[in-house]
Amino acid sequence: MTANSTTGADVDLKRGRESPQWTDVHDWVALSGVSPGAIALYVVLRMHVNRSRDDDMVMTSTLTLAVLMGMSRGDKIKGYLDELVTLGAVDVDRSGLHRRNTYTVHQLPRPATPARPPSRRGMRSTGR
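and the corresponding structure tokens:
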């Protein structure tokens, strides 16, 4: 692409290197109020979603995730993982072999649950 500058000289604009893959980090996670460490863990988990299976699952160990976040032990990410589970951004299946977990990394927040009417159980009649 060539464009003229104000001096009349041609300027060549070239695109940088591009990747066919990218990592989606969804606004609802980043704006939820979770810690920066939890957001970083969400990014690492999203990076490892297996796109060829067309699902949102990641199968890895907490040690692998911790190392990718610059930590030395898998237990150091527990607090961040707990934040993501509480938020509903990640579900964890801990039944994997060889200390590997399966993480379902959600792209959308949990659906809002409708408010329940107050329970009538335990209410007493006034007899009027």
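(Above: one complete record from the training split.) The longest strand covers residues 101-105.
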